[in-house]
Amino acid sequence: MYSAVIRTASGEVKIVEADIPLPGSQAYKEKQERKRRQFAEYLREIEGRQLPKPEGFENVSSEDVLSGKAPAGELDSLIQQAKTEKERNFATWAWSLKDELKKLIQSYVMAVGSPPANFREFSDFFGAVNQEGWINPLNGEILPVVESAKPKDGRLQFFHDKELKRFVLGIPTFGLFGKDFLVSEVRY
């Protein structure tokens, strides 16, 4: 369970919680099945409109996703590429952290009207965050943060690009899965 204390623009204090099911659990299997159905439906809609498929899924059919022959999104793809249980746990952690932080940034934008100018502003707004969510399962250390448009190895990238009206969040993967970062963007 991931939780954060949020102070809204009006000063109200709320606790936000997100349940991140562990791989192998029944809740995880149900979540994956829902995700497969949703992604397959999305692919069918794209195919019907004759639009380009997402990068990495150009040759994937909705039937492949439903049957499990093809991944149902980025997390599925990362887990399939993992060679060890430690890498699978890391993939789940990195993707979940990216996804939850993106949701928190979107909540911030809705409450304040624009993304946070820096990580300090973000963390001051949300208050104390569950420290366990920041511990890298590969080395057991808390993930450091860098506020820079240029990613730095082993650090969470947190960057507000005012010119392009976007907020970039990058979770380091330390070269696993052929990537240096899992990247999320919040546009406004």
Give the tags.
188 residues; alpha+beta; globular
Estimate the strand proportion.
15-25%
Count of folded domains: 1
Order of helices and strands: EEHHHHHEEEE
Number of helices: 5
Helical content stands at: 25-40%
The secondary-structure class comes to alpha+beta
Please explain how this structure is put together.
With 188 residues, the protein is α+β, with helices and mostly antiparallel strands. The protein has one domain (2-187). 39% of the residues lie in helices and 18% in strands. The chain has five helices and six strands, in the order E-E-H-H-H-H-H-E-E-E-E. The chain has helices spanning 26-49, 62-67, 74-81, 85-112, 119-126; strands spanning 2-7, 13-18, 145-146, 156-161, 166-172, 181-187. Strands 3-4-5-6 form a four-stranded mixed beta sheet, with helices on one face. A hairpin with a 5-residue loop joins strand 1 and strand 2. Helix 3 packs antiparallel against helix 4 (85-112). It is globular and about 45 Å long. The chain starts with a strand and ends with a strand. The mean pLDDT is 75.
